[in-house]
Specification:
It is found in: Membrane. Required for vesicular transport between the endoplasmic reticulum and the Golgi apparatus. The chain is mainly α. Helix content is 79%, strand content 0%. The longest helix is centred in the last third of the chain and has 20 residues.
């Protein structure tokens, strides 16, 4: 099968779709949709991703004209898979069209999965953290509505992570604490609590509200009686003391000591650097 064959199929489908159907016979839109789909798959095999995506979209438009909305949603998703190879924005647009249909049909679990795909494109392909955060938040809400708790939490943690990177610490704290609270009685999730509390605690300190940060750490110790004895809790308390004393040396020492046993990732390092810089600002004013 050649690209020439795909072009011929599209030309026939275009003609079929715009023809007058006065005669009794087959559905012109159905026939056009079949030809567009075949052409789209030929382009897909040839790795002509843009042409494949465009042609899948034409097939979906025919299916919409026939009110075959489930089929149209699937075809828009196929279009997005082709577009993802060449045009992230077109991939998102196709997924959004599919999601409109899925939510109309009450298929929120499937809609959430594709909303998560959109978030992933914003995160990895377009590196737009604000849009990624918004998309993950919608996916989390839909998953939660379908009682898919683990998937909702996964998306919520993404929201928290990006919110902190964007300096929206209150939002990050809310999401980290929400997942932590929901994980308290879950034996599979309990091992992650100290990580959620650490991240939420760092966000509290980064807001510059020391009283609120102290209260938060105390609250985490009440929520989970084992947290107080963890290195994560001791680390939060030591850097809080350094912040309270405007002691950059003590702060740096605490960070180095923690990092030697538990390697700090880029996310924590960035927030710790912001906290350290704020100590420098405060001490320079004295």
């Amino acid at each position: 099968m050649s690209e020439r064959e795909a072009q011929e199929l599209i030309a026939k489908a275009d003609k079929k779709a715009t023809s007058s159907s006065w005669f009794f016979g087959g559905n012109k839109y159905e026939e056009a949709a079949e030809m567009y789909t075949k052409a789209a798959n030929i382009y897909k095999m040839a790795k002509r991703w843009k042409e494949s995506g465009d042609t899948f979209c034409k097939a979906a438009d025919m299916q919409l004209k026939m009110n075959e909305r489930d089929e149209a949603a699937s075809t828009f998703i196929n279009a997005s898979k082709s577009y993802k190879k060449c045009s992230p924005q077109d991939a998102i647009a196709s997924l959004e069209k599919a999601i409109v249909i899925l939510t109309e049909k009450g298929r929120f679990q499937s809609a959430a999965k594709h909303q998560e795909d959109i978030a992933g494109i914003y995160e990895s392909e377009l590196v737009d953290l604000d849009q990624a955060m918004r998309a993950y938040e919608v996916a989390a809400d839909w998953y939660a509505g379908e009682s898919s708790t683990a998937l909702a939490h996964k998306c919520m943690l993404k929201v928290a992570t990006f919110a902190a990177q964007l300096g929206q610490y209150d939002k990050a704290i809310e999401k980290f604490e929400m997942v932590a609270s929901a994980s308290l009685d879950n034996q599979l999730m309990k091992w992650s609590l100290k990580e959620y509390f650490l991240k939420a605690g760092l966000c509290h300190i980064a807001t510059g509200d020391s009283v609120s940060a102290h209260n938060a750490v105390a609250r985490y110790c009440e929520m989970d009686v084992t947290f107080g004895s963890t290195r994560e809790c001791q680390f939060l308390q030591s850097i809080l003391t350094a912040v309270d004393n405007s002691d950059v040396g003590q702060f740096t020492g605490s960070v180095v000591e923690f990092d030697q046993l538990t390697k700090l990732d880029n996310w924590k390092t960035k927030i710790l650097l912001e906290i350290k810089n704020s100590i420098g600002e405060e001490s320079s004013l004295i």
